């Protein structure tokens, strides 16, 4: 019995299903929500960190990558700078907010042996990973040197790390049971407050009431999206479990992820029995997502 699902989660899957089914939809939703409340938002914004790199340093590293690709074709020749998942500002005078979107599955890595932790553990790890990635990119372009003793820190912060520190960084984490971390709740609350203020200015509505309605709408949408993505990912990975995995995979088209609503409902019932806490509290995110799936949403 695979109690924690570790064997299933580490099964060989194709097409980066975790990103396609869970990560990317949440990125798109947060970017759209920020723009809908009157903010300025970009998803996968290539210029955010790229503009901090001196042109000469980038050109030198790009030439080095091209030469390496020519000598070793198996090496990837294109040089790509790290990109923020979502970068936005709700008011022109405030600094940029970088939302690092992450998902976590129900495993010992994030939920521990007792089944608690989850999104909070993933939030802390996401912020550490982002800072380490920025420092590594500074070293990649020759803009910083690793400090003696290692531990990932540089002697002096480079321009990419400086650009990261100039923004407000938030980890937006969605858990295995459609629960959201503190950072994701903070993003939703800030967007709802700004949306309520905009409605008050334009339509004369009560800003508190409008903000509450927007917050409930965003919470429900994130819960639906998270529950659907988790169920779709589980069903897609089931194709790679068991002795008949190859035969089952051969019978399906490459772009098909969800088998049927009946199978989806059966797997969702298992998830509901495992955890009653959904995004926003009280299991509303998970239950709302399953209801939307049952309606074909």
Structure description:
By secondary structure, the protein is of the alpha+beta class. It has one domain (6-294). It contains 12 helices and 4 strands; from the N terminus they run ααβααββαααβααααα. The chain has helices at residues 6-9, 17-36, 47-50, 55-71, 108-111, 119-140, 159-165, 182-203, 207-238, 245-250, 261-274, 284-294, and strands at 40-43, 86-89, 97-103, 168-174. The chain has a 4-stranded mixed sheet, sandwiched between helices. Strand 2 (86-89) and strand 3 form a beta hairpin. Helix 8 (182-203) crosses helix 9 (207-238), helix 9 packs across helix 11 and helix 9 packs across helix 12 (284-294). The longest helix is centred in the C-terminal third of the chain and has 32 residues, at 207-238. The two termini are 33 Å apart.
Q: How many strands in all?
A: 4
| Spatial strand arrangement across the major sheet | 1-2-3-4
DSSP helix count?
Answer: 12
Low-confidence runs (pLDDT<50, min 5 residues)? 257-265, 270-278, 280-297
Nearest-integer average pLDDT = 79
**In this structure, how is the largest beta sheet organized?**
4 strands, mixed
> What is the SS-derived class?
alpha+beta
Q: What fraction strand?
A: 5-15%
Helix content: 40-55%
Rg, Cα atoms, Å? 21 Å
Succession of helices and strands = HHEHHEEHHHEHHHHH
Provide the number of structural domains: 1
Estimate the global geometry from the Cα principal axes.
Answer: globular
How far apart are the first and last residues' alpha carbons, in Å? Answer: 33 Å
